[in-house]
Amino acid sequence: MEDPPPPPEPEHHHRPVRFGILGCAAIARKLARAIRLVPGATIAAVGSRSESKARRFISENGLDGAAVRAHGSYEALLDDPGVDAVYAPLPTGLHARWAAAAAARGKHVLLEKPAAPCAADLDAILAACDAAGVQFMDGTMLMHHPRTHEMRNIIADKKAFGDVRMINSVLSFRVSDDFLQNDIRVKPELDGLGALGDIGWYCVRAILWAVGYELPTTVAALPGSVTKNDAGVVLACGASMRWAGSKVVATFTCSFLASLAMDLTVVGTNGTLRVTDLVIPLEERSAGFSVVATPAMAELAVGWGPPPAEVAVATDLPQEALMVQEFARLVRSVRDDGGRPEGKWPAIARKTQAVLDAVKASIDKGCEPIEIMQGLNN
């Protein structure tokens, strides 16, 4: 079962969390809108490598140029005393430097995924956040949609769903020739994990979510699934995961070279759950999934049933705003009450990164199985 909803916040928590946006990547436009939708959050500043670019971002996204400060360097934004937290949509290769620098200046860190190029870099970020007593969260928006919580409740129902046995996730989108030549996600020095980091992150997170975040013991890239560009960046790949002493097996595939797909299937001993718009729901205000309980073949195997039950889960806010809302709640708890940061989100990010590292290692070793150290499960 999911954690219960948080208790109502004290009156003094009505002072909003002041966000600084560290970089003007395209995804930052989506988060700027999300921050504006959340009553307990506000955009205080935008930082870029040039002040003119920061001012252009403020103007193009309908922000108040008199109220939102434009900084011409990342350092200037981090030194802004009117910023409580940073949202960092920087290239993955820059995360370790700037997320750690933000934490060192007492800024809470909402970091785009993938969290880091490798677990060692993420460990440095998390250590900096821990030392400074600031909240860390990665930007996996789907985790905050109420649909995700409803699906968790169904999978956790041992009587109706049974024990999880198989999980499969498929994420892909067909990119343009210009993307393949120029996007940061195909440049080894900027986003060296390529498709594995950009969309494989979601596949891995969804699989870990389905098993209650227990790390697999063995990960192996799928032979024949890997495509790289000339710089060695992964454009498509897949992997399998196994858990020692368990009957669970999971697989995923991700690709920049196939049509748009966002599928997750979880099969239990008694039921099957499917979602076809996992990362970005087809609609902002409602997201669905299907579930079949105790299906069986018809006589002579000419059909089977019952038909899937379609479940729709409504939300007042889009998932990215719900993510900002939860992050802001945690920040206020630290800022206003002297509380400790919530450790769940750093732990989940670290496990996701550990699996990505193992997939990358398997790819680099010709799809050899890679064992994952289990200390993170404790």
UniProtKB/TrEMBL annotation:
Stretches assigned to the Gfo/Idh/MocA-like oxidoreductase N-terminal domain: 17-137
Residue ranges occupied by any GFO/IDH/MocA-like oxidoreductase domain in the UniProt entry: 151-274
SUPFAM superfamilies per UniProt: Glyceraldehyde-3-phosphate dehydrogenase-like, C-terminal domain, NAD(P)-binding Rossmann-fold domains
InterPro entries documented for this protein: Gfo/Idh/MocA-like_OxRdtase_N (IPR000683), GFO_IDH_MocA-like_dom (IPR055170), NAD(P)-bd_dom_sf (IPR036291)
Single GO term (MF): nucleotide binding
Highest taxon in the source lineage: Eukaryota
Family: Belongs to the Gfo/Idh/MocA family.
Protein known as: Gfo/Idh/MocA-like oxidoreductase N-terminal domain-containing protein
Species assigned in the record: Digitaria exilis
